[in-house]
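Inverse folding, one chain.
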């Protein structure tokens, strides 16, 4: 499967915001899939999988002082519940996706036929888990929050050696992140260091849903990830999570960035007609400074005594762009008259495409 599976992909991280309740998870999928369809966005809704009974050591399962243990236990869903959520994601027109946090959960990704798998920042050097994920041969997205350069180099080399598509998300694992903590220049670093990989931006910011994605897109990020939640059942929404209306603004900012950046910067852009027409109106045309006889050759030595440049440029007239020493006049040119492309004998005057361009511009 090509790395193109990652291009212009939005990952909406549902995480554990279902809070262990199937109906709440379905409501989140319903609300956000509407926003996805309305904006015509290619989006995955991502779950988190844990084999909770084995993920937490048996001696600590009732520990309520450890936030991660308590949240993991309280947000547990059954495999059947996850199956319902995955089915709902697919039927809503989104891509099902998951972050597995243990080896058994990788098997669940395979069972649910997930098109790709996410490796969380916290698992970037969890090699037993990484090896199990690689065993599936599925494309992988890895987030790099808090990682060392060696961590990233190692995982990139590992997946490259196995010819498994790997995308790399710049991520700051601060929940929530301040604007000054986003480190968007890291996108440049990742693109330069890993040129064969799609680079993304996974964010936990909470002040703005427009500026960072526009900057990230312009820098070359092509995967965009945020945590999502809804106002439902009077449950407080974490500040690093985005509500449907905020994700709608996020999508629209992306569309605006795509519009403003234009086609990929791998080749010279095609200049639109209205731009050339505007610039042609500013170009000076070539006029005779005195009466010039047929057969007269415009030499470099005498050119500024023979001609001058002025606006407007007229249709069929040569401009200062085409003027070069050596043109021979094919007819008499009166003082202050324009010198036309058909009035001169030179190599470029015989170029049909250039002549057509010259006759189509000017006044």
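Residues assigned per position:
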């Amino acid at each position: 499967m090509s790395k193109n599976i990652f291009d212009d992909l939005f990952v909406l991280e549902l995480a554990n915001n279902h809070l262990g309740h199937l109906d709440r998870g379905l409501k989140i999928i319903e609300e956000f899939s509407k926003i996805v369809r309305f904006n015509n966005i290619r989006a995955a809704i991502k779950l988190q999988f844990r084999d909770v009974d084995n993920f937490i050591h048996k001696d600590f399962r009732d520990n309520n002082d450890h936030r991660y243990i308590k949240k993991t236990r309280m947000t547990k869903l059954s495999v059947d519940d996850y199956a319902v959520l995955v089915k709902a994601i697919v039927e809503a027109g989104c891509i099902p996706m998951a972050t597995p946090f243990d080896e058994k959960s990788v098997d669940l990704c395979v069972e649910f036929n997930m098109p790709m798998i996410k490796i969380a920042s916290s698992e970037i050097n969890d090699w037993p888990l990484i090896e199990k994920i690689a065993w599936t041969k599925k494309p992988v997205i890895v987030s790099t929050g808090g990682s060392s350069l060696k961590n990233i180099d190692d995982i990139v080399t590992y997946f490259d050696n196995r010819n498994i598509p790997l995308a790399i998300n710049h991520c700051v694992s601060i929940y929530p992140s301040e604007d000054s903590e986003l480190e968007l220049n890291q996108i440049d670093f990742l693109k330069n260091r890993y040129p064969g990989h799609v680079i993304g931006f996974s964010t936990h910011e909470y002040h703005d849903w427009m500026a960072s994605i526009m900057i990230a897109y312009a820098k070359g990020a092509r995967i965009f990830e945020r945590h999502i939640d809804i106002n439902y059942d009077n449950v407080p929404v974490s500040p690093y999570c985005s509500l449907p209306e905020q994700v709608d603004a996020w999508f629209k900012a992306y569309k605006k960035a795509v519009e403003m950046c234009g086609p990929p910067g791998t080749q010279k852009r095609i200049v639109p007609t209205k731009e050339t027409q505007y610039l042609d109106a500013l170009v000076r045309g070539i006029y005779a400074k005195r009466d010039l006889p047929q057969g007269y050759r415009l030499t470099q030595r005498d050119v500024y005594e023979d001609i001058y440049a002025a606006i407007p440029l007229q249709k069929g007239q040569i401009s200062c762009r085409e003027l070069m020493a050596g043109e021979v006049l094919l007819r008499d040119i009166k003082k202050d008259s324009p010198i036309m492309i058909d009035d001169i004998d030179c190599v470029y005057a015989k170029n049909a495409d250039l002549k057509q361009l010259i006759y189509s511009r000017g006044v």
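DSSP finds 13 helices and 13 strands in the chain. Residues 227 and 265 are 30 Å apart (CA to CA).
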